[in-house]
Amino acid sequence: MNVPLLDLKPQLDELREEIIEKVIEVIDSTRYIQGPEVDALEAEVADYCGGAHAIGVSSGTDALLVALMALDIGPGDQVLTTPFSFFATMGVILRLGARPVFADIDPVSFNIDPNQLEIALAQDRDRRIKAVIPVHLYGQCAEMTKIVSLCEHYRVPLVEDAAQAIGAEVPFSRPGSSPAWRRAGTLGIAGCFSFFPSKNLGGIGDGGMVISQDPDMAAKIRLLRNHGAYPKYYHALVGGNFRLDPIQAAVLRVKLPQLDVWHAQRRENAHRYDELFTASGLLGNGRISLPRAVFADQAAKQTKEVNYHIYNQYVIRVQERDAMRIWLQDSGVTTEIYYPLGLHQQQCLQPISSSVPMPHTEQAALETLALPIFPGLTEEMQHHVVQTIQAFYG
Ligand SMILES: *Cc1c(COP(=O)(O)O)cnc(C)c1O
Question: Which residue puts its alpha carbon closest to atom 6 of ligand 1?
Answer without folding.
Answer: 60
